[in-house]
């Protein structure tokens, strides 16, 4: 199952959740992340935290969601937005009509630099709970309607 995680800048929250899915999913899912208006670089605190927690960050990069709407892009089964602005934007048409959900998380990159560690850890903890909740489910065999309902429920986990 392919999951695309979207946020406007694709530098923090979406990068964290992409890495969480790819690490915790252990081959069961393949996650990607992108942004509607990517910053062009991953937030340095995203990399610091992920590396500290044992995630492979070698492939982490900030990229446009246009890459995943282009011909030859992997077909997505789920698209999850993690910021309100990306959730409200008109997204490209994704091949395969994936199930969509919004898992809003406060932007840790908006914190003042002295508060980065705490802000990124808080965002990571929330996203980790949500990723684990999804991965505990038999989502491969769920109907799109049931999956959509469960994704919405998971998005309410604080």
From TrEMBL:
One of its GO terms (biological process) is response to arsenic-containing substance. Keywords: Arsenical resistance. SUPFAM superfamilies: Phosphotyrosine protein phosphatases I. CDD domains: LMWP_ArsC (cd16345). The keyword Nucleotidyltransferase does not apply. It comes from Leisingera caerulea (Phaeobacter caeruleus). It comes from the Bacteria. The keyword Heme does not apply. This is Arsenate reductase ArsC. Residues 1-137 form the Phosphotyrosine protein phosphatase I domain. InterPro entries: Ptyr_pPase (IPR023485), Ptyr_pPase_sf (IPR036196).
């Amino acid at each position: 199952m392919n999951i695309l995680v979207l946020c406007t800048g694709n530098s923090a929250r979406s990068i964290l959740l992409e890495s969480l899915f790819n690490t915790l999913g252990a081959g069961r899912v393949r996650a990607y992340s992108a942004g509607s208006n990517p910053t062009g670089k991953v937030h340095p605190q995203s990399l610091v935290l992920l590396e500290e927690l044992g995630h492979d960050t070698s492939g982490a990069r900030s990229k446009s969601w246009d890459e995943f709407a282009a011909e030859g892009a992997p077909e997505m089964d789920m698209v999850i937005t993690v910021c309100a602005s990306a959730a409200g934007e008109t997204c490209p048409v994704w091949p395969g009509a994936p199930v969509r959900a919004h898992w809003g998380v406060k932007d840790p990159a908006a914190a003042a630099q002295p508060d980065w560690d705490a802000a990124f850890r808080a965002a990571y903890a929330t996203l980790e709970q949500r990723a684990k909740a999804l991965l505990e489910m038999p989502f491969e065999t769920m109907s799109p309607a049931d999956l959509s309902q469960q994704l919405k429920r998971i998005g309410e986990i604080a």
